[in-house]
Amino acid sequence: MVLMTCTAGPATCSTRPPKAGTRSSSAQGGEVLPALTNEMFQKYAGIWFICNKARDLWKEESRKTKHSALERRWMFYYTLGCVIRKAYENSDDQYQADLRRLSKPAWMNEGPDGTIQKVISRQSRFAMQSMKQVYEENAKTGTSHRNWFRSPATLEAIKNRLNDSWIIVEEHAADYRFRPK
C-alpha cells in the first residue's frame, strides 16, 4: 500500500510506505483519503499527468478561439475522459495498464512530437470539437449560456455527440490510445 499526500500540486505530492497502524492521509481541506494501493496511485497519477498536459492545449484553444463552450475546464476534462474511455472501449485491462504506465512522467519530456503527447493532442481536439458542436446546437434552441453549463443534459448531449462522431474515427481507434514505445 502507498499513501498519497498532495497539498498544492505535483511539487508537493509524495508517496511513502504507510507506517504501522496508518490507514489514511489528510488532503487539502482536511478530508481523509484512504490508503491507496500502488496500482491505484499509479492510475490516478497517470490521469493527473494527462490532465496537466491537456490543460495547456485547452488554455491555448480557449484563448485562441474564445469559444463559449470552452469556458469551463472541468467540462473539458469530463469530455476528454469520455474520449479516452471510448478509445479503450472493450479494452479495460489495457486502459488501466496504460494509465498506470503514464504515472512515470518521462514521456512529458519528449515534447509535442512525443507519441503520448500527440495522442493527448488528438484526444483533446476531438473533445473540444465535440463540446463546440453541442454548444452551437444548444444555442439554436435558445438555452442560455449559464444554463448550458448547469444542465445535466449537457453532459449527456456531449457523450452522445462523442458516440455519434466516433463512428467516423472508429477504424483509427488505436490512434486515440496511449501506445507503449
What does this structure look like?
Strand 1 (3-5) and strand 2 (14-16) form a beta hairpin. A two-stranded antiparallel ribbon has the order 1-2. It has a two-stranded antiparallel sheet with strand order 3-4. Residues 1-15 and 20-26 have low confidence and may be disordered. Helix 1 crosses helix 3 (92-101) and helix 2 crosses helix 6. The chain folds into two domains: 1-36, no CATH class; 46-176, no CATH class. It is globular, with a radius of gyration of 18 Å. The chain has 181 residues and is mostly helical. It has helices at residues 38-65, 73-87, 92-101, 115-139, 145-150, 152-169; strands at 3-5, 14-16, 24-26, 32-34. It is built from six helices and four strands.
Provide a brief overview of the structure.
The chain has 181 residues and is mostly helical.
β-strand number:
4
What does the radius of gyration come to? 18 Å
β-strand amount: 5-15%
End-to-end C-alpha gap: 28 Å
**Total domain units:** 2
Main beta sheet strand tally, sense and closure: 2 strands, antiparallel
Going across the biggest sheet, name each strand in turn.
1-2
Number of helices: 6
Overall residue-averaged pLDDT value: 84
| Principal-axes shape call | globular
Q: What is the structural class?
A: mainly alpha
Task: Point out poorly predicted stretches.
Answer: 1-15, 20-26
What is the chain-wise order of helices and strands? EEEEHHHHHH
Fraction of residues in helix: 55-70%
